[in-house]
Design a protein that fits this description.
Layout (H helix, E strand, L loop, with lengths): L9 E5 L1 H8 L4 E3 L3 E4 L8 E5 L5 E7 L5 E8 L7 H15 L9 E6 L8 E6 L2 E6 L8 H11 L4 E6 L4 H6 L7 E3 L7 E5 L2 E5 L14 H10 L4 E5 L5 H8 L4 E6 L2 H12 L8 E5 L2 H4 L7 E6 L11 H17 L1 E11 L6 H14 L4 E7 L16 E7 L2
Parallel strand pairs: 1-4, 9-10, 14-15, 14-17, 15-16, 17-18
Antiparallel strand pairs: 1-3, 2-6, 4-5, 5-6, 7-8, 8-9, 10-11, 12-13, 18-20, 19-20
Helix pairs in contact: 5-6, 9-10
């Protein structure tokens, strides 16, 4: 009996606005922009977008379960998306990073989602462990391919799967779960990795993001270079990344402030992993917003690195006000000649909006100040489109 004919390639037509965005290089097609498709599509299927004149626009991964209906892989001229194509794309992502890290750092981003041509997929390395985080079910059928690419570049390394919360239930239907080990032996506990000669633990199975905040590495290094002789307050300290770097840089004392005792315990363990750090370290469990307004303890360097304060567009205005308040209260805790580092990871708040909020707080303080630096993404976390530009920081030196 002859085999049934193969289904025709999934074909989408989109709105004129979406066509314009695709031509400009935007990597997403929203459900609301799809004007038609020739048949129902399966998660992870390759779908081709044609314009109103039936000319090729883009090809991408189809996701019928997400408002982001298509994650674009390639746009412009037609391309053959096969194993060799994926290998070339993976190699290009690795070449971008190969020269960034020396032997003192084995924690870094390997693949950065859309900005590396792997939409909705992130891979971070922590020493002997790769953490593969997925944000779309479109990748489920392609996991064997991804694991093959990773094993070719990193033979013998463990691979742990992390899943965005919104796809957990769909993952269970195909036998996948958050924290699952896909290659190698399951980790016995937190993975220990190195960054700039410091040792840190990463909870790759249950921790936030992929287990650690690798994206702040360059700001941590800058803090190290600015901390000598200063009392340092690390607010929203999480597992103490900035705290350890401040100690490495010769701070006279470091205070880690966080509402989570679990996070503070992790910071203590990270200090214990680095017995060469002799700077006194104190932890304070408290709500940062409240703690900054109580008491008058002064610091030479105040670091404000909160979690996202705007997880959706409707929260943007409130987040901008909150960043301004945090900066105002943080400035109040600065001693004469003190330095403020204020950071934001809220994608819905633009860099200019954030920087302006912090500058306005500095102006209202009545204290003379100058801007030392502004930073955004670390080179292994590069962003190639507006929605990916979430990280920004500003350094202000107060000169009174």
């Amino acid at each position: 009996m002859p085999a049934p004919p193969a289904a025709p390639r999934l074909k989408l037509t989109v709105s004129p606005a979406a066509e314009k965005h695709l031509r400009a290089g935007h990597p997403w097609v929203y459900e609301s922009s799809v004007r038609g498709q020739n048949r129902p599509g399966e998660a992870g299927e390759l779908a081709v977008v044609y314009d109103k004149r039936d000319r090729f626009l883009a090809v991408g991964l189809f996701d019928p379960h997400s408002p982001l209906r298509l994650r674009v892989l390639h746009a412009g001229s037609p391309a053959k998306v096969d194993r060799a194509w994926w290998q070339a794309r993976f190699d290009a992502a690795w070449v971008r990073r190969a020269a960034l890290f020396g032997s003192d750092t084995d924690g870094y981003r390997v693949i950065g989602g859309e900005s590396d041509g792997f939409p909705a997929l992130v891979v971070d390395r922590y020493a002997d462990t790769l953490v593969l985080k997925l944000y779309s079910v479109a990748w489920f059928p392609h996991l064997p391919l991804v694991l093959d690419l990773l094993s070719g570049a990193f033979p013998g390394l463990r691979v742990v799967l992390r899943l965005s919360r919104n796809i957990g239930a769909l993952a269970e239907e195909v036998g996948l779960r958050d924290g699952q080990t896909l290659a190698g032996e399951p980790p016995a506990g937190p993975v220990i990795f190195r960054e700039s000669g410091l040792r840190f633990e990463a909870d790759v199975v249950r921790g936030q993001k992929t287990g650690f905040f690798l994206d702040q590495r360059e700001n941590r290094r800058r803090v190290r270079d600015l901390s000598a002789g200063k009392r340092v307050l690390n607010a929203f300290s999480f597992s103490g990344g900035f705290s350890l770097y401040a100690a490495q840089g010769g701070a006279s004392e470091v205070v880690s402030l966080d509402i989570s005792q679990h996070a503070l315990d992790s910071s203590e363990r990270n200090f214990a992993l680095n017995p060469q750090l002799t700077t006194p370290h104190r932890t304070v469990q408290a709500d940062v917003f409240e703690w900054l307004t109580q008491g008058n303890e002064q610091f030479g360097l105040v670091i404000l690195d909160p979690p996202s304060l705007a997880r959706r567009e409707a929260e943007r205005e409130g987040a901008i006000r909150a960043y301004g308040k945090l900066a105002r209260d943080g400035i109040r805790r600065l001693e004469r000649g003190g330095l403020l580092l204020s950071a934001s990871c809220s994608a819905h708040v633009s860099a200019d909006e954030f920087w302006d909020a912090v500058r306005s707080a500095a102006n209202r303080s009545g204290r003379p100040w100058r801007e030392v630096a502004r930073t955004q993404h670390a080179p292994d976390h590069h962003a190639t489109f507006a929605e990916a530009e979430y990280l920004k920081a500003i350094y202000l030196q107060f000169e009174d």
